[in-house]
Automatic annotation (TrEMBL):
<comment type="similarity">
    <text>Belongs to the iron/ascorbate-dependent oxidoreductase family.</text>
</comment>
<dbReference type="InterPro" id="IPR026992">
    <property type="entry name" value="DIOX_N"/>
</dbReference>
<dbReference type="GO" id="GO:0046872">
    <property type="term" value="F:metal ion binding"/>
</dbReference>
<keyword id="KW-0408">Iron</keyword>
<dbReference type="GO" id="GO:0016706">
    <property type="term" value="F:2-oxoglutarate-dependent dioxygenase activity"/>
</dbReference>
<dbReference type="Pfam" id="PF03171">
    <property type="entry name" value="2OG-FeII_Oxy"/>
</dbReference>
<keyword id="KW-0560">Oxidoreductase</keyword>
<protein>
    <recommendedName>
        <fullName>2-oxoglutarate-dependent dioxygenase DAO</fullName>
    </recommendedName>
</protein>
<dbReference type="InterPro" id="IPR027443">
    <property type="entry name" value="IPNS-like_sf"/>
</dbReference>
<dbReference type="InterPro" id="IPR044861">
    <property type="entry name" value="IPNS-like_FE2OG_OXY"/>
</dbReference>
<keyword id="KW-0479">Metal-binding</keyword>
<comment type="function">
    <text>2-oxoglutarate-dependent dioxygenase essential for auxin catabolism and maintenance of auxin homeostasis in reproductive organs. Catalyzes the irreversible oxidation of indole-3-acetic acid (IAA) to the biologically inactive 2-oxoindole-3-acetic acid (OxIAA).</text>
</comment>
<dbReference type="InterPro" id="IPR050231">
    <property type="entry name" value="Iron_ascorbate_oxido_reductase"/>
</dbReference>
<dbReference type="Pfam" id="PF14226">
    <property type="entry name" value="DIOX_N"/>
</dbReference>
<feature type="domain" description="Fe2OG dioxygenase">
    <location>
        <begin position="158"/>
        <end position="259"/>
    </location>
</feature>
<dbReference type="InterPro" id="IPR005123">
    <property type="entry name" value="Oxoglu/Fe-dep_dioxygenase_dom"/>
</dbReference>
Amino acid sequence: MSSELSLPVIDFCKVDLKPGTAEWDSLRSQVWKAIEEYGSFKVVFSKISQELRGTFFNELEKLFALPLQTKKSYVTEKPFRKYVGQSPSSPLNESFVIDDPLISQILEHVLWPPQGNPCFRKIMQSFSKEVFELEKIIRRMIVESLGVEKYLDEHMNSATYMLKLSKYGSPHTSEAESGLPAHTDKNLITILHQNHVDGLEVQTKDGEWIQVKFSPESFVILIGESFYAWTNGRLRSTYHRVRVNGSEARISAGFFSMFKEGYIMKAPEELVDEEHPLLFKPFDYSEFLKFFQTPAGRSSVSALEEYCGV
């Protein structure tokens, strides 16, 4: 663990940020430099009010306080979209995944039948809307930095979204460990936000681990394997892990953008040349996730390379 290294911090507090302006170009340059060097960076984003942030985490506290049998009732047919928690292997970890949180009502009607929980839904939607607008800005800046704006509309319209709500219990109340092992995300971009309890660590390209310190207005941006594939290796997917050591539980929200089901991901031809030969065959992200759930996918050093590597 490095006590000297820290993730770059980029201020996105400017409300009227618009493409083509000097402010946009300056931020875009900072974003590109950060992801080239770290594959990750921290954003200061004040557009979400203190009141909404507080209400958001209050609702998550109530969510995880529901009876275990109630939480276990939340299951869906799609991969990873369900409640996972309190298993023998990781008894302190819990999570819910909401598919397309901007419109989904499935979770609230399963956990709070029959009338649902309109307050919970409204808060999740309001918070997610602001975060995913930030994601779109960052993804657009990356496409522009690569000089492949001709694909911008298709690329922006090819994405869908997912929200993962996680709780990592205090290890001081148990002999079990609390956290997640080192991994890369499979999607395009992940944006992480949390309560006041730290635990996220990000690995540099030199193999050193950075312990990330959050402020109430900070979000961490991580590049996923799908973006690594779409850019034909120009970006690297970021290894990260969670290790909670304190006496309080860490509650976090992960906002994930990914390719829509049925969309065939293909690297732009401008990003393939002699110095950058094609790394991956075109693939459907949803089919890749199904492979990742198989024993072969889970045991592979690189599931994506195993699935569709050239």
